[in-house]
Amino acid sequence: MDIEAEIRALQLDSAEDNNATLIPEDAKPEEVEMTDKVEEEGMTDEVDTKSQPVQAEPKSFFIPFSLPSLKDKEVADMDCAEVPDEMESQKKRHLNVVFIGHVDAGKSTTGGQILFLSGQVDDRTIQKYEKEAKDKSRESWYMAYIMDTNEEERVKGKTVEVGRAQFETETTRFTILDAPGHKSYVPNMISGASQADIGVLVISARKGEFETGYERGGQTREHVQLAKTLGVSKLLVVVNKMDDHTVNWSKERYDEIESKIVPFLRSSGYNVKKDVQFLPISGLVGTNMKTRVDKNICPWWNGPCLFEALDSVEVPVRDPKGSYRMPIIDKFKDMGTVVMGKVESGSICEGDSLLVMPNKAPVKVLAVYCDEDKVRRAGPGENLRVRLSGIEEEDISSGFVLSSVVKPIPTVTEFTAQLQILELLENAIFTAGYKAVLHIHSVVEECEIVELLQQIDPKTKKPMKKKVLFVKNGAVVVCRIQVNSLICVEKFSDFPQLGRFTLRTEGKTIAVGKVTDLPSRSSA
Ligand code: GTP
Ligand code: MG
C-alpha cells in the first residue's frame, strides 16, 4: 500500500489542488470564537487533578532565567486585547521556528551558527566550545554546543531536550526551537513542533546521510508528517552540509534531494509552491546564512540566504480577541506558580482572571513574561511565562490549559476523531481495543480506540457503507477514542491547533488525526 499517496486522503492537508475539505491553515478565523461569550452549558463535573509527568522540559539558552519582582499595575478593567502591547510597540513581528530533521542533519549546528552570526555568541565562547568539543573527541560539534547545553547532549553529540533561543533580524523576533532528531526523543520533538509557527527542515546533503534520513524509518519523513499535523504550516527546507567534501556545493546533489523530497512534502499535505522554500547552506561554516553565498563557492544559486528567507515568511493570522487558550508545557515555583506555554488564542493581561483546566482552578495573572521581558499584555503566538496566584505548582501538569473563564476549553475522557493510519507495527491490525499514546497540543496520554465508526473512501472522501471492524495501513477511519483522565481538547473545526493529534505505539508514529466531535456534556 502506498502510504504517502494515501496521506493525501486525510483531510488534514492543504494539498496543492486544495480539494481537501478541511484545511488547517485555511480554517477561517470566523470559525474561532471572536469574543468570549458566557455559555450556559456547565462544565463536566468530573475534575481530575492527577499529576502527569512533564514530558519535555524545554531548556533555555538564556538560563539562568530569574523573574524580576512584581510591580503594581492597573490594567484589570480594560479589554485585554486593547491594552497596548510593549512587544508590538517595538514594531517587530514574532515567529516561532522549530528546527526538525533526521539525527545529525545539523539542526543544532545551524541554530548555533544563527546565534553566532546574529552576534549573540562571542569568539571567546566559540573557542571555549571548540576546546571542550575537542576534549570530548567531537571536534566538529562546537557550533552545536551553543544549542546543546547539557552534558549528556555534548558527550553524545545528540540533542535530547528542545533547545530554545531568541534572535532578531531587521523585521522579526524569532524564537528558535531546536528539536532532537533521534527517534527515541520524538515526544520532545512533538512538544517543540507544537509551539512552532514555521519549520526549518534540515537535510544533510552528505553522501549516504540524506539517504539514511529519508528512508522509511528515518526521521525526515516522520518529522515532516508530525510537523504538518501539529500545525507547522510553512517549511523552509535547508539542504545542509553543502561544504562537505562529498557534496562540494554540487548542483546535481542539491537538485536530486529537492526532487526526491518535493513529492513527499506534497503527499504530506504541504502546498509546495505556496508554503515550502528550499535553499542550500552550510550550517557549520555559516555559508548562505546571514549573507548570500559567494558566486565563487556556488555559482548556480540565485535565491535568498537563510536570514532573508526567514524574514520573508508570513506570520500566520492570529486572533487577539479569541477565547484565551495557552497549553501548559512546563511549570515551576518562583514567588508563586509560573507556567510556560505558547498562546494559541486570545490575549493575556496582568490582573486577568483565568481557569487552569481541566481542574477548573480559578487563578489570577500576577505577571506575564515574554522572553526575558515583563509585559503588560501578550497576544496569540507568543511563548510566555505566566506567574499565577490561586494554584500550587504541584496541582498543574503539562497538558493542562490556561483558559478563559467565560468560555473555558472543553474537557473530555472521550472524543470522536478522523484518523489517517500511517504505518502500524508489523503484524498489527487497527481495531477496537487498540492502545496507543495520544499527543495533542501539550497532552501526552495513554488512549484506547473503543469503536471504529466508519471507514472513509480515500477516493470519494465519503464514508463507506460497509461496517468496519478493522483497518490496515493507509486507511482513513472515524473512531471513538478514550483516555483515562480528563484532558483538554477542542474540535479541529473550532481550534485546529488544539484539535489535531498523533498516535504513537512503541516509539513510532502510527497515525495522525483530528478531533471531529466531543460528547455533548463535555462542552465547557
Ligand atoms: P541531533 O540533535 O542529534 O538530531 O543532531 P543535529 O541535527 O542537531 O546535528 P548537529 O548539529 O549536532 O550536527 C551533527 C554533525 O554534523 C556534527 O558533527 C556537525 O559538525 C556536522 N555538521 C552540521 N552541519 C554541518 C555542515 O554544514 N557541514 C559539515 N561539514 N558538517 C556539519
Ligand atoms: Mg541537535
TrEMBL record:
<feature type="domain" description="Tr-type G">
    <location>
        <begin position="92"/>
        <end position="321"/>
    </location>
</feature>
<keyword id="KW-0488">Methylation</keyword>
<dbReference type="InterPro" id="IPR031157">
    <property type="entry name" value="G_TR_CS"/>
</dbReference>
<dbReference type="InterPro" id="IPR004161">
    <property type="entry name" value="EFTu-like_2"/>
</dbReference>
<dbReference type="InterPro" id="IPR000795">
    <property type="entry name" value="T_Tr_GTP-bd_dom"/>
</dbReference>
<dbReference type="GO" id="GO:0005525">
    <property type="term" value="F:GTP binding"/>
</dbReference>
<dbReference type="InterPro" id="IPR054696">
    <property type="entry name" value="GTP-eEF1A_C"/>
</dbReference>
<dbReference type="InterPro" id="IPR050100">
    <property type="entry name" value="TRAFAC_GTPase_members"/>
</dbReference>
<dbReference type="Pfam" id="PF03144">
    <property type="entry name" value="GTP_EFTU_D2"/>
</dbReference>
<protein>
    <recommendedName>
        <fullName>Tr-type G domain-containing protein</fullName>
    </recommendedName>
</protein>
<dbReference type="InterPro" id="IPR027417">
    <property type="entry name" value="P-loop_NTPase"/>
</dbReference>
<feature type="compositionally biased region" description="Basic and acidic residues">
    <location>
        <begin position="25"/>
        <end position="37"/>
    </location>
</feature>
<comment type="similarity">
    <text>Belongs to the TRAFAC class translation factor GTPase superfamily. Classic translation factor GTPase family. EF-Tu/EF-1A subfamily.</text>
</comment>
<dbReference type="Pfam" id="PF00009">
    <property type="entry name" value="GTP_EFTU"/>
</dbReference>
<dbReference type="InterPro" id="IPR009000">
    <property type="entry name" value="Transl_B-barrel_sf"/>
</dbReference>
<dbReference type="InterPro" id="IPR009001">
    <property type="entry name" value="Transl_elong_EF1A/Init_IF2_C"/>
</dbReference>
<keyword id="KW-0342">GTP-binding</keyword>
<feature type="region of interest" description="Disordered">
    <location>
        <begin position="15"/>
        <end position="55"/>
    </location>
</feature>
<dbReference type="Pfam" id="PF22594">
    <property type="entry name" value="GTP-eEF1A_C"/>
</dbReference>
<dbReference type="GO" id="GO:0003924">
    <property type="term" value="F:GTPase activity"/>
</dbReference>
<keyword id="KW-0547">Nucleotide-binding</keyword>
<comment type="function">
    <text>This protein promotes the GTP-dependent binding of aminoacyl-tRNA to the A-site of ribosomes during protein biosynthesis.</text>
</comment>
